[in-house]
Amino acid sequence: MPMHEPTNPWIELPAAPPYVLPSDAPAIVLYNTRAEEQHQLRLDALPEPFFGASSAPVVLLGLNPGFDDRDPEVHANPRFQELLRTNYRHGPADFPFYFLDPRFASPGCAWWERKLNPLLGMFAREEIARSLLCVEYFPYHSRRFRHATLQVPSQDYGFRLVASAIMRKAVVVIMRARKLWFTAVPALRAHSLVFTLNSPQNVVISPRNCPGFEVVVSAIRNGYVHA
User: Fold this and answer.
1) Can you say whether residue 158 is alpha, beta or left, with left for phi > 0 and alpha for psi between -120 and 50 degrees?
2) Mean per-residue pLDDT, 62-70
3) What is the pTM of this model?
4) Nearby residues of 199 by Cβ (< 8 Å), 6 or more positions away
5) Are 102 and 125 in contact (CB under 8 A)?
6) What is the dihedral of CA 156, 158, 160, 163, to 10 degrees?
């Protein structure tokens, strides 16, 4: 990240659960004491605030990481820990969008392969993995999202990643939570390369579901941000 950017909080994530940043902990612990089980934020799984190349020409905006019962076991794997922590610091990787790494398997891998299937039919897996960055509105896992009013300090770093993408004229695809994203990053409203999926329930990046599909394809094919 540029020198003027604020310190990346995610390099300070604890090495063992509960996986929560100290700055986020007070609000999250309080929320979990009141929330139903399906809405509780899971601190036995590593947060996934963003994943992919920080300079990617295509940026996908999500809501928050879901939760699968297998996640704690997967997240305890040292290799998965290494992948995520390299991603936190924007380190080099063969597959920056690590859910496309064929050497790795997790519930999230199968989910993302379905959502990116149209692109996987057009490009090499490595090319897509280098061309995408996903930023989640809220970084912590839950079975279901019901904490739109909960704000934690670490969210600001993700919002700044999106603002930086807008400045470099990356293509932005809002998969879910359009209103939340427009509030969090007001510059999205005036960005000429922002598209919202037609179905936030089935977030496949396809010609039918993504109004800017051809623009996404062009950005991946050319490997650069738009001038």
Assistant:
1) alpha
2) 95
3) 0.94
4) 209
5) yes
6) -130
Report residue 121 CA to chain centroid gap: 22
The per-residue pLDDT for 223 is 80
Residue 7 is predicted with a pLDDT of 87
Q: Give the whole-angstrom CA distance, residue 45 versus residue 42.
A: 6
Check residues 103 and 165 and name the one with the higher pLDDT: 165
Environment class of 197 (CB within 10 Å of its CB; exposed 0-12, middle 13-18, buried 19+): buried
DSSP 3-state assignment of 173?
strand
Q: 162-183 as b/e, with b when 16 or more CB fall inside 10 Å?
A: bebbbeebbbbbbbbbeeebee
Kindly report the CA angle at 116 between 114 and 119, in degrees rounded to 5?
135
- What is the SS3 assignment for 55-95? CCCEEEEECCCCCCCCHHHHHCCHHHHHHHHHHHCCCCCCC
Contact 190, 196 (CB under 8 A): no
Q: Which two tokens stand for residue 30?
A: 């309080």
Tokens of 150: 């909960």
Spell out the domain ranges in the chain. 16-222
Question: How does pLDDT run across 22-50, given as a tens digit for each residue?
Answer: 999 999 999 999 999 999 999 999 999 99
Q: Say if residue 226's pLDDT is above 90.
A: no
